[in-house]
Specification:
transmembrane helix, 7-stranded mixed sheet, 14 helices, EC 3.1.3.2, acid phosphatase activity, hydrolase, single chain, alpha/beta, 422 residues, globular, Histidine_acid_phosphatase
Length: 422
């Protein structure tokens, strides 16, 4: 009887537990060197740094190796013991530091065991990392050209609200322009300077005296605000973050559907602070702090046995230390959002048709405008032609009349011999 009781308790507990069916992991790369030091930077000599500018450092490799081990532990019940390309898909932006971060992360997630060991002295195995040139990548790099986005952003940058807020930092921007040798005009320019100073301070380089009055306190807020400007309007958010969120949601729906043959359980995206900031801002989670190295967003599809329902949970790990991530409060839904409710809340992002809205739609509009323009031109040309013909006919008749009279009058002044030669 006691054994039956214990079995009942265990079964009741298991049926009441939540189970992760699919997860998407989006993270920022690890520690790196400055990308582009400002003109007057005393530490702009690349030889002073451990690696070339913009590259992942050994510290960054270790950070992602540790994160990979943590992810493996978190999703131990979701993944097979051995790496399975049908279960895991990894994508990175086409940048050295993100590609290297993905590789270091995967080394921590999938150390070879058993038949997976191919070299006893090297407990590592190659795992595919997919990428795409930045100029062609609207999904993760978010840099593919979009006419509609450019137009919307231009309107936003010229809006009174944007200009009024930016004007509060005019003195700071003028100050930075004077001392950095670089024209500082907006939030992104301030973030570039802040980022350089942050890294130099992190590596114990002595900062110039002029920085003491502004770094980090006065420069931090406008710099971190830059991560919300690329998704400032619903349309900008839709075209910037929509493609990635749409792909993730489709994978969730594939996991729920019994008709699909997809066995994908984990999507991993290796990106930048720009990537993390855009997602947080577009989805209503951004707290105004710059995303640190290895900042990680976890989007999980959960099946709850107690309700027989599917839910979405989003977590954010905003530290380079291996700590339990914060479960984010999904606006108007809570920490665990029913999938159908989630789809409705973020329909503006998920329903995006990027190719059409960014390219074909404007191509069609341009084509129609061109046809209308050609039609108007042709109509004006025909009207002008008819009018010209009528005017010409009238003037020609007058010319003929005058010419005949002139000829008649002139015949009286010349001899018949000369007239006959005319």
């Amino acid at each position: 009887m006691f054994l039956y009781f214990c079995l009942f308790i265990l079964l009741s507990k298991s049926f009441g537990e939540e189970r992760i069916k699919y997860a998407a992991v989006i993270y920022r790369h690890g520690d790196r060197t400055p990308v582009d030091p400002y003109p007057t930077d005393p530490w702009r000599n690349e030889s002073l740094w451990p690696v070339r500018f913009g590259e992942l450092t050994n510290i960054g490799k270790m950070q992602h190796y540790a994160l990979g081990k943590w992810l493996r532990n978190r999703y131990a019940n979701l993944l097979s013991n051995q790496f399975d390309p049908k279960e895991v898909y990894v994508r990175s932006t086409d940048v050295d530091r993100t590609l290297m971060s993905a590789q270091a992360n995967l080394a921590g997630m999938f150390p070879p065991t058993g038949k997976g060991v191919w070299d006893e002295d090297l407990l590592w195995q190659p795992i595919p990392v997919h990428t795409k040139p930045e100029r062609d990548d609207e999904l993760l790099a978010m840099k593919r050209n979009c006419i509609a986005y450019n137009k919307e952003k231009e309107q936003y940058l010229h809006s009174k609200a944007y200009k009024d807020r930016l004007s509060k930092y005019q003195n700071l921007m003028d100050y930075l322009t004077t001392y950095t040798g670089k024209e500082i005009r907006d939030y992104q320019d301030m973030e570039d300077i802040y980022n350089n100073l942050f890294i130099e301070n992190l590596y114990n380089f002595t900062l110039p005296n002029w920085t003491h009055s502004i770094f980090p306190d006065k420069l931090r807020e406008p710099s971190c605000y830059s991560f919300s400007t690329s998704t400032a309007t619903p349309l900008m958010a839709r075209l910037m973050v929509g493609p990635l969120l749409k792909q993730i949601v489709n994978k969730m729906l594939d996991s729920i559907s019994n008709e699909t043959k997809s066995a994908l359980k984990l999507s991993i995206y290796s990106g930048h602070d720009f990537t993390i900031g855009n997602i947080l801002s577009a989805m209503g989670f951004y707290d105004g702090n710059c995303p640190p190295y290895t900042a990680t967003i976890l989007m999980e599809l959960i099946y709850d046995n107690s309700t027989a329902g599917h839910y979405v949970r989003i977590l954010y790990r905003n530290s380079t230390e291996i700590v339990e991530p914060n479960t984010l409060l999904i606006p108007y839904c809570g920490k665990k959002c029913p999938i159908n409710r989630f789809l409705k809340l973020y329909d503006n992002l998920i329903s995006v048709n990027w190719e059409y809205e960014c390219e074909k739609k404007f191509t069609s509009i341009f084509g129609i405008s061109l046809l209308i323009g050609l039609g108007l031109f042709f109509a004006i040309y025909v009207v002008h032609k008819i009018h010209f013909a009528r005017v010409y006919k009238i003037h020609r008749s007058k010319f003929d009349y005058v010419n005949i009279n002139n000829k008649t009058n002139s015949s009286k002044l010349i001899s018949p011999e000369i007239e006959g030669n005319l």
